[in-house]
Amino acid sequence: MSQFLSFAGFELRYHLRRPVNYVFMAMMFFLGFLFIASPAVRIGGVSGAVHINAPYVINTAVMILTLVGMIVTSAIAGTAILRDFEFKTHELLFTTRLRKSSFVFGRYVGAWVVTVIVLACCSLGLWLGAHMPWLDQDKLGPAVPGMYLWPLVLYVLPNAVFTCALFFAVGVLTRSFLAVYIQGVVLFVGWQIATNAISD
Known about the structure:
With about 200 residues, the chain is mainly alpha-helical. The chain has helices at about 1-15, 20-35, 55-70, 70-85, 90-95, 100-130, 145-175, 175-200.
């Protein structure tokens, strides 16, 4: 258990020191912010008498932005599982008394927590966007905090579990960054194709 916690904590600290992850956070935040605060950006079919911050709209926005974030997830999870193979340190690590299960699951949990933090920034952007003074107040409903937190439980947490596990499995089997990134793109394109097919 101590090895697992050690690897998970190390992975979390490693990712929180990487500037690129803050770029990912800013990207997710501004996508959410622009969706609410700018009339030029609309996701989820806001029209008619529907408030631009209605629970249905917030849920749809977080769901879509979470799926867009799959490419971000591939970068985080791919780095977590393939970093040691890239720098050839896995041979040294596996000669020690560490348990491979603690190593893999510790890295996985650390990457999952960072992925959740990154994707959750879209909900923060949605919340802040709804408080901008230039918005037409007649098109805004009550800003209940639960409207922004519930989609995180509904979409972000389970999607992060699934996609991180998938990227980890491909990373372990192929030991290739390219395969992990291609998988992220394929999942995103596959989601778009499935969405269009279902809508018909």
